[in-house]
User: Which sequence fits this backbone?
């Protein structure tokens, strides 16, 4: 369970990106965070694993106060939170397998990391995950030879290798074309449900959020302005988050074009 | 005066065009003047005995005629010293490789632990580069005695700054997002360097190593002058004993070795990148 | 489902034969080169205590004879300045001739040969010769640094000319301009900023190299430094070394500042 209380982040230039955010994520499932760019979505996610240090407030993960941890304990806490990035952030010159296994870095010794001698069960788990994200047979491909969609699949596998208690996902599809974006979201959501891992997903695409999320949080100017189910995202709610606009074209039934499932995802990847 | 200005051409003369405004011209002129003045002052202050110049061309011509024909038989004797020169450069570069890497991580802003370590790293790089290989050789001959060991350390200590600087610059230009991703897995600082940083700068490391090896071959040819091994010993004694026919053979040997090393280095670097 | 697939970490070199062969070759080379070197291990093993004693004598650095130090530094600076300027001028015709797209082949080959030979031989070797020809003192040092500067600047210049935009040259040639006019109107504007940048860089390099020509009698602070080593005046040596480090640091700072403004 993740509990965020009165989280404030003021950047050194005086900009208050978060102005007291309080929210609780108790159940497994996908929580989408939507909001205009600059709303503080990335800041919120990065405060949770402290890639950004919050100015005040508390982040508690299963009774552990992340905001109070020293460096060593912080690293232990980070092992429990998998992160997925918009720009994938793979190590481009390493192979797919090395990238996926880097999710276990917190658990192996420096020597093992140097020699790439990961425990056999880690390698087996990595193979399983590669199958699941549709990259079987690509383990020895170098990351810089992959397409954007394939890179994000590796990014997902790397985060899940940590067997995290929480997934932090920052705009996973913003650099992808619409079709690939849906495939990636589908993989992410399916795996999160299957593993029972709660996922906090930043998304700027309202429609994607509606189709895939179990819960939607609206962030505007560093404050939570909406918290509810995807069906509750009415025109009024969207106006509160993004400002006045004609929302009739944006709001669509949740499961409209969900027919091409896992197979298409695999076909694209191979 | 009305807005339509119809001043007749014969009042203002033909329109002139100048590359620079008077002010620009003045600034440029002052710059030139400053350079020339500095040059003249330096030259006069050096108190160069110009009468040496009077017969310099005769001296040079005399030297050249004495160098020919080269004493070819001497060639067999310089094979070992030439080989030693190559060994000094190669072993020195290998030693450098292991020292320059940690220093580069200290001297790069994004991998150094704190401000103090950054300053230390930077100072090591500047100190290493400021002191010429031959001066390093002077120091190491005093420590290890004459011989190639001093040469190897001299080559290494000069190269640390060169390679360290280039590698540190490469480290400062890496993709920081990758580093964040590895940090987010809970990896320790050393593992972040190993997995997140090192692979990104590996091509630069290989490239600079080979490049520096090539430079070090050239540097090693003169280490013998201060007793640090290699072909320089033969060169120095041949010159001091006025064995000019031997000198030309030595110079030929150096020319061949340096050209080959340059060729090899260029070939390897072209394949790396 | 137990996964029995195995994964091997990728090797730097794909083919096992080549990989093991290379490893073996490296080991053999190390054994051969270290074994073949003429090393007095007894003397080398005294190195650490000797280094310790040397450091003891180096600290604290002794700046008492600062007048000697300043005189050497000023001489080095003057040598660097004079040789950079002269080298900068002589490098222009040679660099031009070494550009394959500007001159006929024989001229090109001759100019390239000059550059290769001057580059191949270390400054110290040039200094040795100049000392033989014009005697000890700064003149030999200046001549050495001129040779090194000409070699460096003309090589850079030739590369820049070869990489410049030939369209502009053709445009000026199309107006019926003569070769010197082409140089003035089409080549110079394209090359000048980088040429000045290279020359400034060479000034900074010459400050560094001016310390080494002194070792064989070419004047400057290097000559002072060598003398201190011969007399075991290590505390003065350290003072000189620290001064050189500061000088090089300032020179580099100045050079990158000027080059930044040239852009
Ligand atoms: N490192 C930083 N320094 C200063 N301001 C920042 C920094 N990172 C983000 N900001 C500012 O904080 C606000 C929130 O940014 P961000 O969390 O990236 O929003 P979002 O992800 O919702 O687009 C923006 O106004 C942004 O300009
Ligand atoms: Mg963002």
Assistant:
């Amino acid at each position: 369970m993740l509990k965020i209380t009165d989280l404030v982040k003021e950047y050194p230039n005086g900009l208050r990106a978060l102005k007291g955010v309080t929210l609780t994520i108790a159940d497994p499932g996908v929580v989408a965070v939507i909001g205009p760019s600059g709303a503080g979505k990335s800041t919120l996610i990065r405060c949770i694993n402290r890639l950004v240090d919050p100015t005040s407030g508390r982040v508690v993960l299963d009774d552990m106060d992340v905001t109070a941890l020293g460096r060593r304990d912080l690293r232990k806490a980070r092992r429990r939170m998998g992160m997925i990035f918009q720009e994938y952030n793979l190590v481009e010159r390493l192979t797919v397998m090395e990238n996926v296994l880097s999710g276990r870095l917190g658990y192996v010794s420096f020597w093992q990391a140097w020699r790439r001698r990961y425990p056999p069960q880690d390698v087996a788990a990595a193979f399983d995950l590669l199958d699941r994200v549709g990259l079987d047979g690509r383990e020895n491909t170098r990351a810089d030879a992959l397409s954007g969609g394939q890179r994000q699949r590796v990014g997902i596998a790397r985060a899940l290798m940590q067997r995290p208690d929480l997934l932090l996902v920052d705009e996973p599809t913003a650099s992808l074309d619409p079709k690939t974006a849906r495939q990636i979201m589908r993989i992410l959501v399916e795996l999160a449900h299957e593993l029972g891992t709660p996922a906090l997903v930043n998304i700027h695409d309202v429609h994607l959020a509606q189709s895939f999320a179990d819960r939607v949080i609206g962030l505007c100017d560093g404050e939570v302005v909406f918290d509810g189910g995807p069906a509750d995202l009415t025109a009024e709610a969207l106006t509160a988050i993004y400002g006045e606009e004609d929302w009739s074209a944006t709001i669509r039934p949740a499961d409209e074009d969900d027919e091409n499932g896992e197979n298409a995802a695999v076909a694209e990847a191979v | 005066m009305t807005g339509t200005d119809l001043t007749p051409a014969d009042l203002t003369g033909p329109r002139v065009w100048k590359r620079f405004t008077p002010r620009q011209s003045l600034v440029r002129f002052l710059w030139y003047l400053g350079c020339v003045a500095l040059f003249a002052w330096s030259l006069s202050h050096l108190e160069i005995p110009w009468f040496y110049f009077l017969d310099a061309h005769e001296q040079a011509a005399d030297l050249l005629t004495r160098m020919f024909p080269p004493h070819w038989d001497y060639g067999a004797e310089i094979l070992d010293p030439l080989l030693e020169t190559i060994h000094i450069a190669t072993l020195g570069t290998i030693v450098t490789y292991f020292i320059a890497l940690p220093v580069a991580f200290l001297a790069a802003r994004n991998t150094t632990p704190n401000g103090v370590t950054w300053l230390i790293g930077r100072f090591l790089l500047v100190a290493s580069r400021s002191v010429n290989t031959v001066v390093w050789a002077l120091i190491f001959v005093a420590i290890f005695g004459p011989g190639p060991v001093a040469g190897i350390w001299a080559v290494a200590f000069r190269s640390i700054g060169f390679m360290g600087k280039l590698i540190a610059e490469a480290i400062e230009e890496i993709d920081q997002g990758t580093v964040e991703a590895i940090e987010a897995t809970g990896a320790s600082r050393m593992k972040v360097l190993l997995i997140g940083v090192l692979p990104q700068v590996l091509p630069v490391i290989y490239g600079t190593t080979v490049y520096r090896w090539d430079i070090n071959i050239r540097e090693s040819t003169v280490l013998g002058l201060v007793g640090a091994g290699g072909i320089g010993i033969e060169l120095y004694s041949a010159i001091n004993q006025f064995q000019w026919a031997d000198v030309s053979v030595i110079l030929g040997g150096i020319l061949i070795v340096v050209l080959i090393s340059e060729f090899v280095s260029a070939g390897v670097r072209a394949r790396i990148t | 489902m137990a996964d029995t697939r195995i994964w091997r970490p990728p090797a730097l070199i794909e083919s096992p034969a080549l990989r093991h062969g290379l490893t073996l070759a490296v080991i053999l080379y190390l054994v051969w080169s270290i074994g073949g070197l003429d090393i007095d291990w007894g003397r080398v093993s005294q190195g650490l205590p000797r280094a310790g004693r040397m450091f003891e004598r180096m600290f604290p650095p002794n700046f008492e004879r600062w007048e000697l130090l300043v005189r050497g530094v000023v001489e080095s600076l003057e040598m660097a300045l004079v040789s950079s300027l002269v080298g900068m001028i002589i490098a222009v015709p040679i660099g031009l001739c070494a550009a394959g797209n500007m001159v006929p082949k024989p001229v090109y080959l001759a100019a390239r040969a000059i550059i290769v030979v001057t580059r191949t031989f270390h400054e110290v070797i040039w200094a040795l010769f100049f000392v033989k020809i014009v005697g000890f003192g700064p003149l030999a040092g200046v001549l050495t640094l001129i040779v090194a500067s000409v070699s460096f600047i003309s090589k850079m210049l030739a590369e820049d000319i070869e990489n410049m935009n030939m369209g502009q040259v053709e445009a000026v040639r199309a107006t019926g301009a003569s070769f010197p006019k082409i140089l003035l109107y089409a080549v110079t504007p394209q090359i000048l900023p980088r040429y000045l940048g290279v020359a400034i860089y060479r000034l900074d390099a010459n400050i560094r190299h001016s310390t080494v020509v002194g070792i064989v009698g070419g004047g400057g602070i290097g000559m002072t430094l060598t003398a201190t080593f011969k007399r075991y005046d290590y505390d003065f040596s350290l003072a000189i070394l620290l001064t050189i480090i500061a000088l090089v640091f300032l020179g580099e700072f100045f050079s990158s500042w000027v080059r930044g403004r040239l852009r």
